[in-house]
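Re: [ENG-882] Designed sequences occasionally contain unexpected residues at chain ends

Forwarding the minimal case from QA. Structure tokens:
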């Protein structure tokens, strides 16, 4: 491996309207090297990577980014345009938004080949098929004619990789390439990147906050905090002997188990399901479809019980039926079988269901999209009281809102500051604070059970640890029960008492969390657990 830098970044700074967000960072990448740029949201890692190719709008850039002897930051736009995609390529975080929805996958990759390498259409078409095959997409000759929405998440990410590698770049910038994927798919994509990097001899700059991924992938790690590099070095050295306090905090931010292990025998079942089944009607082909509908079984006869003060974890990949089970538990989907909350079943009577809805509340994956941007904190958190306790006076309602905000760590002892907090809107809070607001909104009507749908997957690792600690404390204090849906095995290990493993709508394994994770019996469970450990 050559020791001369392929990319040498010196004093890179990025400012917006005079506000500096990246403060003169220095780093280099040698040919064939795998480097990871890590840090939490807002640390400056993505804007630094995008600035190398001048892809950040309205940004004032300083310093140098010397690539093969040429400064990318001073290069004329026409010359830089030739470098983009040919010598330096990029894989973006969310392929569904990065891919053109109006063009087939094949046409999008072929466009890169014809523009950057001058290949004829026929040659480009065959090259596209070869690229899709190389990245592991099944039936590549057929998939070239598919649109982005017709591919799975993993296939879309593979198509993005194929597009990035079309011109055999010397440097690949991979911005959170596995964040939106399930744990086993993450491993597959990572293995694919390693294989392609080694076979092509290219360098890779991986931008990620997933420390397990970084430990497995990178030769060297660069740690960023608040727009500055605080530490860099060999991966093994940084992970085993971190020098900076921020790096130490990142590495120590794996979820910690702090729950009441022994649930009291007299505790009643809060939710009990027997033969829970969810079916979606599907059209049948031909004349049969005129008279009859087919069916797709999304959930196949699940049995489970959640005791007061206990957490049931549901784990599995996308499409396994986790979210369908959660929607049925919330009474938001028609289902077959028996489902009881505190001894009462969901029924067709809306008035009867209203009382049950008070007992079961939800906390969703993305707090920014689940909280109304037009309502203040007081209106968002207190909304449930208006439905379930309309008799409360305005002063009593506000007192309940304040008390609940303090329960979730958003309270303030100063009355004037608290009054200001009540009138703020969701966009004025950080991601972790927004998730605390979502938890407060669910808690204020004092439910027995919270359905937690990937409650920490949109959060940074340190914030994730804080939110999980909050949920554990609330469970101990209020005797809450949780139905926890996640694909993160570490979160299951920290939070759950019992676990269900789901695949293709069916429960393939269940039991006490320590037993299932330590000695998984089903091959699918073993795959999930090993992918999380790797």
């Amino acid at each position: 491996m050559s020791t001369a830098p392929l990319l040498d970044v010196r004093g890179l700074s990025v400012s917006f309207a005079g506000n500096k967000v990246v403060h003169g960072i220095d780093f280099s990448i040698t040919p064939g090297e795998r480097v990871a740029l890590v840090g939490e949201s807002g640390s400056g890692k993505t804007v630094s990577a995008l600035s190398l190719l001048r892809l950040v709008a309205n940004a004032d850039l300083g310093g140098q980014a010397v690539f093969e002897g040429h400064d990318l930051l001073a290069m004329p736009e026409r010359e830089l345009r030739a470098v983009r995609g040919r010598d330096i390529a990029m894989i973006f975080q969310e392929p569904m938004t990065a891919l053109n929805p109006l063009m087939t996958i094949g046409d999008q990759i072929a466009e890169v080949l014809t523009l950057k390498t001058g290949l004829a259409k026929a040659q480009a078409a065959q090259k596209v098929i070869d690229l899709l095959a190389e990245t592991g997409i099944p039936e590549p000759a057929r998939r070239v004619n598919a649109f982005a929405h017709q591919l799975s998440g993993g296939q879309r990410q593979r198509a993005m990789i194929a597009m990035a590698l079309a011109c055999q770049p010397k440097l690949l910038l991979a911005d959170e390439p596995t964040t939106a994927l399930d744990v086993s798919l993450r491993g597959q994509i990572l293995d694919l990147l390693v294989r392609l990097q080694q076979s092509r001899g290219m360098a890779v700059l991986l931008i990620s906050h997933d420390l397990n991924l970084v430990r497995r992938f990178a030769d060297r790690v660069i740690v960023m905090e608040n727009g500055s590099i605080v530490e860099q070095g060999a991966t093994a050295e940084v992970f085993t002997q971190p020098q900076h306090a921020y790096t130490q905090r990142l590495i120590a931010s794996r979820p910690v188990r702090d729950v009441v292990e022994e649930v009291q025998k007299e505790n009643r079942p809060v939710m009990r399901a027997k033969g829970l089944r969810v079916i979606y009607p599907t059209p049948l082909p031909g004349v049969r479809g005129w008279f009859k509908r087919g069916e797709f079984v999304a959930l196949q006869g699940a049995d489970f019980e959640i005791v007061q003060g206990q957490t049931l974890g549901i784990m599995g990949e996308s499409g396994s039926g986790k979210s369908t089970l959660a929607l049925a538990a919330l009474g938001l989907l028609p289902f077959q079988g028996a489902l009881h909350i505190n001894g009462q079943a969901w029924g067709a009577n809306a008035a009867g269901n209203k009382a049950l809805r008070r007992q079961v509340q939800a906390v969703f994956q993305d707090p920014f999209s689940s909280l109304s941007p037009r309502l203040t904190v007081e209106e968002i958190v207190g909304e449930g009281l208006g439905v379930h306790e309309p008799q409360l006076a305005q002063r009593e309602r506000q007192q309940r809102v304040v008390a609940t905000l303090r329960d979730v760590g958003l309270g303030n002892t100063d009355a004037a500051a608290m009054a200001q907090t009540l009138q703020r809107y969701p966009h004025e809070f950080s991601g972790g604070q927004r998730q605390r607001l979502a938890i407060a909104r669910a808690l204020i009507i004092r439910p027995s059970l919270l359905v937690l749908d990937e409650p920490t997957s949109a959060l940074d690792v340190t914030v994730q640890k804080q939110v999980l600690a909050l949920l554990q404390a609330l469970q101990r204090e209020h005797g809450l029960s949780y139905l926890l849906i996640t694909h993160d095995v570490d979160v299951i290990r920290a939070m759950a008492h019992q676990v269900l493993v789901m695949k293709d709508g069916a429960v393939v394994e269940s039991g006490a969390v320590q037993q299932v994770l330590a000695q998984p019996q089903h091959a699918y469970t073993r795959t999930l657990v090993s992918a999380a450990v790797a």
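QA comment: On inspection the terminal residues look reasonable. The CA atoms of residues 376 and 423 lie 5 Å apart. Proposing we downgrade this to a documentation issue.
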